[in-house]
Amino acid sequence: MPFYKKIFIIIANNLFRILLFFAISIVASVLVYTDRNYVPTILKRNDVYSKIVKSLLETNKDQTLTVGGDVTLADPEIQRIISDAFPASEIEMHTDAIISAFYDWLEQKKSELTFRIDLTANKQRLAEGLGDYAITRLSNLPLCTAFSAEVDPFSASCQPKNIDFESERTILVEQIMNQSGFLNDAVITEDILFKDSRDSVESKYNMAPILYSLATVSPVYIALLLSSLALVVTFASSTKKIGIRKIGRSLIGAGASLIFFTVLFSFVLPRFTGSLPLLQTSGEGIDALLNDVTINFGQDYAWMIIKISAPLIVVGVGMITYSKIGRNKKNYKTAKLKSGLVSSNEDKNDKKITAKKAKPPIQSSESCDKKPKKTHKNSKYRKIPKKEL
Fold first, then answer.
1. Residue with more model confidence, 68 or 100
2. In which region does residue 274 sit, left (phi positive, over 0), alpha (psi from -120 to 50) or beta (all else)?
3. Is the pLDDT of residue 271 over 90?
4. Fewer CB in a 10 Å sphere around the end CB: N or C, the chain?
């Protein structure tokens, strides 16, 4: 085989192996993350909608409701009020609306990313619940001995005399509704969500829909490219079976290595560290919830890689087995001729020919296959006994 042809086969085979390694990872990502129902499924699986409020409260449990107050978010009653104001069903509905809006924009069903989440009713329930809590707390305090012009129901140590609890509750609810720092914009849109960016989402990430559409069809182009390289390696090799064996080894090598590292980093290490190797969290509150969701994302991606790699390994084993069955012996004829084991005039045994070979037209004593007929000619002469010889 010419030297340039050997170099060409080596380059094509190595390119096939490297591209196959990355192609499996890319295809797994596309199959998992381009499914618009996948993210909501993961959130439901981890019970995020019912845990998100509790996790946020746990993370900010030391925060007080008012400056200098002794009522913090760690108070079980405060946590109940906030949880009732933001029920899991409404959080799920709002989250699904945002996710659907993103996928509609990425899939180019809509030219703009638009969504509208109205939390006015949630904020109203929260304000009324906190107002009831504050007035109940204030009414249970002892009467003040000194006059106080202003009173904070969340931090007061006594209740003023002649206080109108109903009007105080109304004022408190209005203050919470108009208070800055918490849900200043009760109606959340894409402009409010990305208000820190000078440019709109469409202009800043204008290539996102194009890249997403290319990603969805990338498995087809990757399969065509890999098939072309496989055909080149197969037909450029000295024999087809040698080329098939090379492709089989590449399939087994890429698939086995991906499965090994995927299982190691996605299933084995998280059992000891509690998180993915690249993720560092505090392990409590919202960090713990995000950690669980991230591990699920990684493990689903890992399972997809295994589902793709395992059949490729089986195909690779089949290709190697096929290349070894009925191996063509003509590859060794040149070596046998040079070593003298056979000659160029070696008879070829054709198993298909069952008829007997024709006898040579002229037979001699060396080639005749029949015994001479017995004759009684000159039988009148006596035979000489062996003892007389």
1. 100
2. left
3. no
4. C
* pLDDT tens profile 325-360: 865 545 556 666 666 666 655 555 555 545 555 555
* Residue with the two structure tokens 């003040």: 144
Q: Please indicate whether residue 348 or residue 385 has the higher confidence score (pLDDT).
A: 385
Indicate if the pLDDT at residue 183 is higher than 80.
no
- C-alpha pair distances (Å), 313 with each of 108, 174, 264, 318, 383: 37, 67, 18, 9, 85
Domain ranges across the chain = 38-208, 209-325
Contact 158, 143 (CB under 8 A): yes
End-to-end CA distance of the chain: 73
**Residue 6 CB contacts under 8 Å (≥ 6 apart), including other chains:** none
Quick check: helix, strand or coil at residue 144?
Answer: coil
Strand (E) or helix (H) holding 257: helix 240-263
pLDDT digits (tens, 9 = 90+) for 64-95: 877 666 788 888 999 999 999 999 999 999 99
> What pLDDT, on the 0 to 100 scale, is given for residue 370?
59
Contacts of 177 (CB under 8 A, 6+ apart): 123, 124, 127
CA dihedral 76, 79, 81, 83 (to 10 degrees): -140
Residue with tokens 């499996």: 24
Bridge partners of 159, per DSSP, are 143
Instruction: Tell me the chain's radius of gyration from C-alpha atoms.
Output: 43
261 Cβ contact list (under 8 Å, min separation 6): none
Q: Where are the beta strands (DSSP E) in 307-367?
A: none
Q: Is the pTM of this model over 0.85?
A: no
Q: How far is CA 181 from the centre of its chain?
A: 39
Confidence (pLDDT) at 149: 62
